[in-house]
Input
Amino acid sequence: MGSAEFVARIQERLKSRPADEALPELEKLRERPSLERIATAVAGHFDRDVASWSAGTRSDDASRAVAAYLAGRRFGYRAAEVAAWLGYSGHGSVRNALARVESGGKDLLDVVEKLASDLASD
Output
């Protein structure tokens, strides 16, 4: 692919660029927080326990949906990975969580932006 220096330069440039569905190969180069880090940051913000996001349980607040949104939309994780990590039954449930965040209003999207910024700067 290129030297380590080249990859580092590209990763630095990608930090300020939002994800682009037309260029999915760029997401593989983007530095991103681990799924564990995303879940921990979101759970902390919402004062939740990550363990409560297990398969077969329902999360009435938006915390798990926000974690799924950040992992999938902001940091390029595949829906199957997100589902497995956050205890969703499958990628369809992740898709529903993304839609929930996208229709959640300005306040929720502001929370998403703040968390995304914090995670990207770690």
Summary: Residues 106-121 form the longest helix (16 residues). The chain has a mean pLDDT of 86.
